[in-house]
Amino acid sequence: MLTSRKALILKAVVTEYIVHAEPVGSRTVTRRYNINLSPATVRNEMADLEEMGYLVQPHTSAGRIPTQKGYRFYVDNLMDDDELSPDIKEIVRKKYKYERMREIQDLIFQTCRLLSELTSYTSIVLGPRLRKSAFKKLQIMPLDDRRGLLVVMADTGFIKNKVIELPRSLPARELARIVAYLNHRLGGLTMEQISAELLREMRHDLYNHLTFLERALKLLEESLSEEERRIFLWGTSHILNQPEFKDVEKIKALLGLFEQHSLLASLLEDTIDCDRDVVVKIGSENALEEIKECSLVLSTYQFGQDIVGTLAVLGPTRMHYGRVIAATQFVASQLNKHLAADYFNLNIG
C-alpha cells in the first residue's frame, strides 16, 4: 500500500497526464496541485513510485507517466467520483423520451451513438442476447386508428417489435381475443415445436384474420430464430485521433478489430455474468492483443430482471475514467428505464 504522500503525488501525475498527454515533472506537480513539498522531495517520491512500478520515465530528461499498475491503483483507490452535469443528464433523458416506441435495434444504435458523443471515445454495444429461445408472450399496443405496435417477447428477455397496419374492421375487443388466443396456443414453444399441424389449426381458427396472423408469425420467427449477436460501433475515429495511436500498425490493428464483430462480442460477453455495475479493464487486462494499450469501461443493461447486453467505451489507457464511468452508468440506467417503461410493462411481463 502506498503512503498518503506517494498516493497524493501519484494522483497528481495521473490526473495531469490524462489531461495533457505529456510526461509530468516534479515542478508541475508542486505548482499545479497544491502539494506542500519541494520539487526535490516530489522528485524523490516519483523515483520511488517508478521503482515500485506505478510510474515510468519514457526518456532520461523527461518527466514521468503512469504505468498500467499506476492507472489501476488510481481507478481503484484515488479517482474522485464524477457525475454528469444536470444539463447533460436532461439532454440524455430527452434523447430517450424522443426514442419511445422505436425498433429495439434502432434504440440500441442510438444508445451507442449517444455514449460516444458523451465521452468522445469509441463506443461498442452488444445487442440483446439472442439464442434458441421459446415464445413467452405477444402484445399489440394501438398507436392510432390505423397502426399498432406488435411486440413479441422470448423467454430470454429478448424482444422484437414492429409497427403494423391494423385492419380497419377489427374491433379492439376482437384484437384482444386474437392476442389471447395466440398467447395460449404458442406459449413456451420454440420455432421447432410450432408444427405444421398447429399452424393449420391456427389458420383455421383465425380464418378471418389471416393477414394479422401471418404478420405475427413472421415477427415471432424473427424473434426466436438463433442469430449472431449484433455489435454496434460508433466514434471509431475518436480513439484513432488520440496521440497514443499515431503509429500506422496500431491503427491497422484497431481498424481490423472493429471489423471482427464476433471477437468484439466475445470481449463484451464476459461482462454479462459480472455482478458489478461498472467494470474497468486496463491495458493487458483486456484479452485481445489489439487493445492491450487501451482501456475498456463496461456496464450491462437489462430487460426486466434479465441482463441482455453490454455497453462499453474504448479509449486509451490515458482515459478520463471518472467522466466515462459516470456517462456509462447514467446511459445504462436510462436505457434500462426506457426498456422497462416502454416494453416490459406492456402487459408482457
Q: Which terms summarize this structure?
A:
elongated; 3-stranded antiparallel sheet; 5-stranded antiparallel sheet; Arc Repressor Mutant, subunit A; Enolase-like, domain 1; Beta-Lactamase; 3 domains; 17% strand
Describe the 3D structure.
Helix 1 packs across helix 3 (39-51). Strand 4 (135-142) and strand 5 form a beta hairpin. The protein is α+β, with helices and mostly antiparallel strands and 349 residues long. The chain has 13 helices and ten strands. The protein folds into three domains: 4-78, Winged helix-like DNA-binding domain superfamily/Winged helix DNA-binding domain (Arc Repressor Mutant, subunit A, Orthogonal Bundle), CATH 1.10.10; 86-128 and 229-344, GAF domain (Beta-Lactamase, 2-Layer Sandwich), CATH 3.30.450; 135-224, Enolase-like, domain 1 (2-Layer Sandwich), CATH 3.30.390.
